[in-house]
Amino acid sequence: MLVFLVLGAAALASAHHSGEHFEGEKVFRVNVENENHINLIHELASTTQIDFWKPDSVTQIKPHSTVDFRVKAEDIATVENVLKQNELQYDVLISNLRNVMEAQFDSRVRKTGHSYEKYNNWETIEAWTQQVTTENPDLISRSVIGTTFEGRNMYLLKIGKAGTDKPAIFMDCGFHAREWISPAFCQWFVREAVRTYGQEIHMTELLQKLDFYILPVVNIDGYVYTWTKNRMWRKTRSTNAGSGCYGTDPNRNFNAGWCETGASRSPCADTYCGSAAESEKETKALADFIRSHLSSIKAYLTIHSYSQMLLYPYSYDYKLPANNVELNTMAKTAVKELASLHGTKYTYGPGATTIYPAAGGSDDWAYDQGIKYSFTFELRDTGRYGFLLPESQIRATCEETLLAIKYLANYVLEHLY
Ligand SMILES: [Zn+2]
């Protein structure tokens, strides 16, 4: 064990010239019972630097729920005093963030360069998109759907056997920079697609009859920033006029009840909705691609972490989608499939009631474009590691998630519209 911890630390030091070291920072989980508790958390958030992990912001806290947040070392005593004095029940999920941050690199794979069981930096993922395309010319083609704020190419992989007028499923990963398990899943999916095509009957049929559009990392600039400067970064890296704060929450930036609920108008907030819907080059590129392929795209899947949930519209409103019953049955079956491998339990339902109301999300937007099968995955875990899921869990997480995705894809194929 010691050996791997040491290797992990070495990997961290070499791959991760972090400006912040997170030494002594803690992640708390607080039980919130009533409005009084919510007000206390609001007060704490206004006087100390709190990074909300779940929900995404202080405004989304509701009674009878739990709140996970990260606290800087110098604020821990203050936060614990306030919690104790007001008799709020809480647990310390992570007692020293730096230790967990080093432990995320616990893969036993010694390989340098790309690995499906390690977290890969953007440079490695970019090279991988080229390599996997070159090695599988009859199944994969690569295109660039736009560039990011900092000028990086947004690569899209189209996976499927050549054919005319094929229906398609669009799946993206890496909306939120710190959710590293998400891009790992997109890479895993591509590998499993090409590895099992012609070997496994279901994948073979899916790729013969459908195309998958895979966007391995949406928020590339943010992802790069989590590797080089701040592992806990969430947003894009665009500049904001009149503010020294960077970035917009890409999953609050779509034209679906834009900025009406569960989003912030402040450029410094982690849930900043942007100056307008699709103000971000990344979300605009994604939306433009989907708009121009609406006749073929039958399902939209977006991969986030953490909390083990499968969500469908709506999140911007408590209204239910027209095919709510169908989506609910699909989600129920998908999470059952997922659990069949390792027993991982997911909850599911419409976003607004299952997690919390949040406007401007890509799933709601895609649904309102007419894509009637639209789902958001919140992958492992439920808070033990949060965004710092160890590499040793990549395989199991991706294997189980793949079962759910294959089920959904097959359902879509049997219910084309
Ligand atoms: Zn997310």
Automatic annotation (TrEMBL):
GO terms for cellular component: cytoplasmic vesicle; extracellular space. It is found in: Secreted; Zymogen granule lumen. It is an enzyme of class 3 (hydrolase). Residues 118-412 form the Peptidase M14 domain. Its cofactor is Zn(2+). It catalyses: Preferential release of a C-terminal lysine or arginine amino acid. CDD domains: M14_CPB. Pfam families: Peptidase_M14, Propep_M14. SMART domains: Zn_pept. GO terms for biological process: proteolysis. Residues 1-15 form the signal peptide. The keyword Secreted applies. Keywords: Carboxypeptidase, Cytoplasmic vesicle, Disulfide bond, Hydrolase, Metal-binding, Metalloprotease, Protease, Secreted, Signal, Zinc, Zymogen. Belongs to the peptidase M14 family. This is Carboxypeptidase B. It comes from Microcebus murinus.
